[in-house]
Amino acid sequence: MEKPRFSTLIITFIPIKTKKNMKQDIKNRSDVQLLVSEFYKKVRENKEIGSFFNNSIKNWEEHLEKLTDFWESNLFFVSKYSGNPQKAHIAVDAQNNQQINAEHFGIWMNLWFETIDEYFEGELAQRAKSNARKMSSHLYLKIFQNRDN
C-alpha cells in the first residue's frame, strides 16, 4: 500500500479593495465640507500655525462655510465663493507682525495633502492638491510683496 503524499499549500492573502476601505474621489459639496472641516481641525491644533488661524477667525462655523464655498467653486467651477483670499492673508500676516513664513505655508500644505489622502483619491483629489500648491505659492509671494521692508 502506498503512503499518502502531502504537499504544502501556501495561501497568501491580498487585501482587496472593498467599498468599506476604498477611497472615492471628491464628488460633491458634502465631500468638500468633510475635507475642509477635517483639515481645519488639524490646523487649529497645530502648534506652529494654529495660532494664526485661532487668533484671527472669530466665527469658525461661518469661516468653514466660506472655505467650503471657496473649494467647491475651485473644484467644481461653480460660483459660490465671494471674497479676496489675498487681502485676507496679507491682513493676517500684518496682524502677526509679518511673522508668517514659507515654513508655515509648508506645514499648511502638508496638512492639506495628508487630509486629502486620508479621505479621497482620484482626479479631483489631485486637483485639490495642485490648486492648493499654486495658491499657496501665489499667496506667500503676495504677502512678501506687501511687507513694509
Short description:
The chain is mostly helical and 149 residues long. Helix content is 62%, strand content 0%.
Describe this structure in words.
The chain is mostly helical. It has one domain: Orthogonal Bundle (Globin-like). The chain contains six helices and no strands. The termini are far apart. The relative contact order is 0.15. The model has no long low-confidence stretch (mean pLDDT 90).
Write a concise keyword list for the protein shown above.
single chain, Globin-like, 149 residues, 62% helix
Helices and strands in order:
Layout: H1 29-45, H2 50-56, H3 60-76, H4 85-95, H5 102-119, H6 123-145
CATH class, anyone? Mainly Alpha
For the residues shown, what is the average pLDDT?
90
Number of domains: 1
Number of strands: 0
